[in-house]
Prior knowledge:
This protein has helices spanning 3-11, 24-35, 49-65, 86-99, 109-121, 166-171, 174-185, 187-199, 207-215, 217-221, 224-228, 232-252, 261-271, 284-303, 312-318, 322-332, 335-348, 352-364, 366-376, 380-390, 403-416, 422-429, 432-439; strands at 17-21, 43-48, 74-76, 102-107, 126-130, 143-147, 150-154, 161-165. By secondary structure, it is α/β, with parallel strands linked by helices.
Amino acid sequence: xxxxxxxxxxxxxxxxxxxxxxxxxxxxxxxxxxxxxxxxxxxxxxxxxxxxxxxxxxxxxxxxxxxxxxxxxxxxxxxxxxxxxxxxxxxxxxxxxxxxxxxxxxxxxxxxxxxxxxxxxxxxxxxxxxxxxxxxxxxxxxxxxxxxxxxxxxxxxxxxxxxxxxxxxxxxxxxxxxxxxxxxxxxxxxxxxxxxxxxxxxxxxxxxxxxxxxxxxxxxxxxxxxxxxxxxxxxxxxxxxxxxxxxxxxxxxxxxxxxxxxxxxxxxxxxxxxxxxxxxxxxxxxxxxxxxxxxxxxxxxxxxxxxxxxxxxxxxxxxxxxxxxxxxxxxxxxxxxxxxxxxxxxxxxxxxxxxxxxxxxxxxxxxxxxxxxxxxxxxxxxxxxxxxxxxxxxxxxxxxxxxxxxxxxxxxxxxxxxxxxxxxxxxxxxxxxxxxxxxxxxxxxxx
Length: 447
Ligand SMILES: [Zn+2]
């Protein structure tokens, strides 16, 4: 276990043990026997046809070798899209209840979420054996779920035991590692957004959560070609980075450490059902990869300007009233999304006096804040090459969008959450529209 993960576990109140390495499947039974209260209870493996073949059988053998009572496994069809809905969490919950069993999820995001939710509803612990480095939700709490046709995140605790065999991760389908790589790359602009949010006093820095999530990013992204080539050693950094990201959310008690405005792009495209009918469906991390590049390119244009030289009087004079902003939101968006954006944006809206204070204070500390941002950010082109090498999307077309559609998403993303990001600061400085134009001007990342 890495020192960073040890530190994370000391402060995380839900996950007790994380084991990442080669040969972990063979030790799974012993670790689960030690950390779940399985004395008088059977364990139920929940997998799908693919993850059962990749790791489930070996986990079953290992559980039996450790002397555990293993129930007949619950195996879903091979495609997560076919079982990613709340009713399947109910199926798992009822099976666990009938058997008096504890759950062991063997799979990636969807299976983990289903068993997490089923176990949470029974108020009992569970274990997950991850099969792909595809996202950072293994050690996170809460389960995103489709219920009655709507996407919601249902509250439930994180797993007690998290196991990851690097040979299994390296053998997973290549699009899955590209997805995990995309989700991890988000920590670069997402971290920059947190620095800004801290600087304006909106979401203060949490040093431990920051250290956990950001400490692993460089290692996680270091070897994109090794990941694409399926080299198990290359997976250690990425898997650790994804696990640390989840732990940092546990320590913080929210998603702030792991996501910034780049994630809003992904959420907005998900609300549009982008790529849901693809086979396999377009993943979270793939959408996040393009959101991440969009935000890194935006940051580059932002950092090319000098906030310290801003004419604060002019910015305050040009600042729209709340009524004008609400009108703009309702012109661009409709229905429940418009209502959502009005509510979120209202929370962070400042009147002219508030804006003057914010900008004046930020300019006063800008030398220091700018230095923090510069050490956090990475050139968009460099990251684009790394994403491409890892098998993640690097141009909008890779996820079925045009550059123009990504450009339009900037406007909705600025309104999507009450969280503070560089999109807000750019709006407050009066630069937002110009910066978006610059990102998509000839010679830019995608033009
Ligand atoms: Zn994510």
